[in-house]
């Protein structure tokens, strides 16, 4: 990919150089990409991470000469991860002349976007959503996603449970719309390999979940899965679990591993031994390359997250599609070109992971190699890949 090579040699990046386009006529020499970023709602803890990296990547593209010689302009709207607001946000981005949309928002909102994307015939890529339903039929003609899906998460969890001899599982989740959808998707797949002893939920802003954790502990599961959007709830969950059921193996979704600011809020050793579904591997040289780019913008001490890598790859796949399509104003042509993007080396996952779309498959990862089980250490930081089990590649 010519654009990718050009970006690789860019030495300087200025965050925020991409201005938000104003409504009106878009010049022919400008390519507009819409960004639906939850910057104030329950998904803000991860959406803003992805959003900043989308901006950075657009800046890199522009410094490398743009796409087909045209500069890229970013239009940003905020749906607050509220599914009721998402359709109007998509319409605003369409009205701004966007050739495509990047959906950095909650799962509930992303799913609500499907029908309006279909009606508007505008392609959208979701860099952080996990719900298989977004990229799957029906009405998925314009819906694409970057991470491995929840069904693939379930495959990996089940592989781990079988390896460890876990026969039963308790689930502790927050009561957000996004997590409610995730649990509904995950549970049937997990029940193929483990008996779910109970599901307990609490509000995202709960101050005490002792009762919920105690009820879950009474069901005596072999392992417990924490499903949350991260932030306050995730730390409260592990602080409470570490006290009430310290011997039970804990698993988590990706959120906790991608929110370094939360780790310091955990009680001493509260995260120790917990295994989360990560998407970064030190053996992937493209991850190291992206870390250097991001740290040049966000500071040398910045902790790279999967949200950064997946957001970067989303923009790069979209940029290649626009390059292939030629006419960025023809949104259906951009969609058709997205379905031709193939074997793009990924910035996340294990070394060798590639990303592809086709008319039959709108899920980017070409294997389970986009997932890495990572164990937290006693310092409440991710320590290393979990020694007990890792997903197979190929």
UniProtKB/TrEMBL annotation:
Signal is among the record's keywords? yes
PROSITE patterns in alphabetical order: PROKAR_LIPOPROTEIN
Question: Superkingdom, according to UniProt?
Answer: Bacteria
Q: Provide the leader sequence positions.
A: 1-23
Q: What is this protein called?
A: ABC transporter substrate-binding protein
Q: Which Gene3D superfamilies match?
A: 3.40.50.2300
Task: Provide the alphabetized UniProt keywords.
Answer: Signal
Q: Does the keyword Signal apply?
A: yes
Question: Leucine-binding protein domain: which residues?
Answer: 30-350
Q: Which family does it belong to?
A: Belongs to the leucine-binding protein family.
Output the InterPro entries linked to this UniProt entry: BCAA_transport, Leu-bd, Peripla_BP_I
